[in-house]
């Protein structure tokens, strides 16, 4: 079977997806009209033309502004539901999604409005589309510790809906130690932890996320390649890296996909996974990310399947759910082998 068709049908698990990053320009216009919000663009095409980024910050500036169109619980529901329909097209069977409460609470939107809209769509996704999911709440690292503590406080009554806390936004100048105390409190409250580290920032952010924030996964982490000892330690511990290939080329972490180190890290035995990060901004969803890797780097179908195996192992689901997904993936692979 040809590789694009294999990729399309391959069962996929997404572990690094910002729900605010799934806001397509068409929906941005729809919500702006519905909520009477002025946009600095006149057409969705104009919006797309503005997506020329030079680094992470140049993206974040546009991304936070776009989130202003999200006001009501139904807006968060519609956003999440549209993403789930894309998951269905790409055969994503499980997704763990980030949301950034501070992006919304800073504009006067209630925490409850945000999480209730997302949660209701995910519940419908489980029931109607058979897509399982988890929610991860991220702290914005450009804001202060006090704001993060207040966000954690607001999350406590939604503990049953949130599996983990994470750390995102501008990595340079905002190291993990700034959030060591709030992550400690989150761990005491029973949340798992993850953090963006080694996307643009130095290797020390990966070490500190492991040591100070006690993370269960590193988001991005591609800069680990700067430190041979760290690469070996990540391979040994099977600490997962949630890598986002199209994001990394769009934000110039790598100039081209041919220079991306994801396949090299996979072949060195690291638990690397493929994810879409902010697909409405970076040129594609899960299938597009797998295709982009396969088009520019040398990977076998077995390698591509290994990304899905790694993602199952790295996910925040029960062992029995992991076994179920592994069985589903392996039976797909047996079926594919008998066709080729
Ligand atoms: N928020 C949304 N996407 C992000 C990324 N790639 N890095 C850091 N923060 C983000
Ligand atoms: Zn991200």
TrEMBL record:
Residues reported to bind substrate: 278
InterPro entries, alphabetized: A_deaminase_dom, ADE, Ado/ade_deaminase, Metal_Hydrolase
Superkingdom field: Bacteria
SUPFAM superfamilies from the UniProt entry: Metallo-dependent hydrolases (SSF51556)
One Pfam family recorded for the sequence: A_deaminase
Catalytic residues (positions): 199
Reactions accelerated catalytically: adenine + H2O + H(+) = hypoxanthine + NH4(+)
Enzyme class at the top of the EC tree: hydrolase
UniProt: Zn(2+) binding residues: 16, 18, 196, 277
GO (cellular component) term, any one: cytosol
Molecular function per GO: adenine deaminase activity; zinc ion binding
Cofactor notes: Binds 1 zinc ion per subunit.
Function: Catalyzes the hydrolytic deamination of adenine to hypoxanthine. Plays an important role in the purine salvage pathway and in nitrogen catabolism.
Family affiliation: Belongs to the metallo-dependent hydrolases superfamily. Adenosine and AMP deaminases family. Adenine deaminase type 2 subfamily.
Protein name: Adenine deaminase
């Amino acid at each position: 079977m040809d590789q694009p068709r294999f990729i399309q049908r391959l069962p996929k698990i997404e572990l690094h997806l910002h729900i605010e990053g799934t806001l397509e320009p068409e929906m941005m216009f729809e919500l702006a009209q519905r909520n009477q919000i002025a946009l600095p663009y006149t057409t969705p095409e104009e919006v797309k033309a503005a997506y020329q980024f030079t680094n992470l910050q140049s993206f974040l500036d546009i991304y936070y502004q776009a989130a202003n169109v999200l006001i009501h619980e139904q807006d968060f529901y519609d956003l999440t539901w549209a993403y789930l329909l894309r998951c269905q097209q790409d055969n994503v069977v499980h997704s763990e999604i980030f949301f950034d409460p501070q992006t919304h609470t800073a504009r006067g939107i209630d925490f409850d409005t945000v999480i209730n809209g997302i949660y209701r769509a995910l519940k419908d996704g489980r029931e109607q589309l058979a897509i399982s999911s988890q929610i991860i709440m991220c702290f914005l690292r450009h804001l202060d510790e006090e704001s993060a503590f207040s966000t954690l406080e607001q999350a406590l009554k939604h503990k049953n809906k949130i599996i983990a806390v994470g750390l995102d936004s501008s990595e340079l100048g905002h190291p993990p130690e700034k959030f060591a105390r709030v992550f400690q409190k989150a761990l005491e409250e029973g949340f798992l932890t993850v953090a963006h580290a080694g996307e643009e920032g130095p290797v020390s952010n990966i070490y500190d996320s492991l040591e100070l924030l006690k993370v269960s996964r590193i988001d991005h982490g591609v800069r680990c390649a700067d430190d041979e000892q760290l690469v070996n330690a990540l391979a040994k511990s099977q600490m997962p890296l949630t890598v986002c290939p199209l994001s990394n080329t769009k934000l110039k972490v790598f100039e081209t996909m041919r220079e991306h180190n994801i396949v090299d890290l996979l072949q060195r035995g690291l638990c690397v996974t493929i994810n879409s990060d902010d697909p409405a901004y970076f040129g594609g969803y899960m299938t597009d990310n797998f295709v982009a890797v396969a088009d520019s780097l040398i990977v076998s179908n077995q390698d591509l399947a290994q990304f899905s195996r790694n993602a199952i192992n790295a996910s925040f689901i029960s062992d029995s759910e992991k076994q179920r997904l592994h069985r589903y993936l392996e039976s797909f692979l047996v079926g594919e082998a008998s066709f080729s």
